[in-house]
Specification:
The chain is an all-alpha fold. Helix content is 30%, strand content 0%. The termini are far apart.
Length: 61
C-alpha cells in the first residue's frame, strides 16, 4: 500500500473492520468479491480469469 493510500484510510472515518467487510461482500450475480469489480461496477474476474457469468454490475446480496 502506498503512503498516500494509507494516509487517506487513516484520515477517513472508516474503521479497518468496515473496510474489510466492504470488500468481502459478494456480488449476487457472479459471486466474486466486490474487489473484483472495477470502479464502474464491471466484473473483472478473479485470479486473472474473465468473469463468465455475464455480470456487468455489482449487486450486493
Amino acid at each position: 500500500m502506498t503512503l498516500e493510500t494509507q494516509s487517506k484510510i487513516e484520515q477517513s472515518d472508516i474503521t479497518s473492520a468496515e473496510l474489510i467487510n466492504y470488500f468481502r461482500e459478494k456480488c449476487s450475480i457472479c459471486g466474486h468479491h466486490r474487489i473484483m469489480h472495477d470502479n464502474l461496477g464491471k466484473c473483472e474476474g478473479v485470479m486473472n480469469k474473465p468473469c463468465t457469468s455475464g455480470c456487468d454490475k455489482f449487486n450486493a446480496e
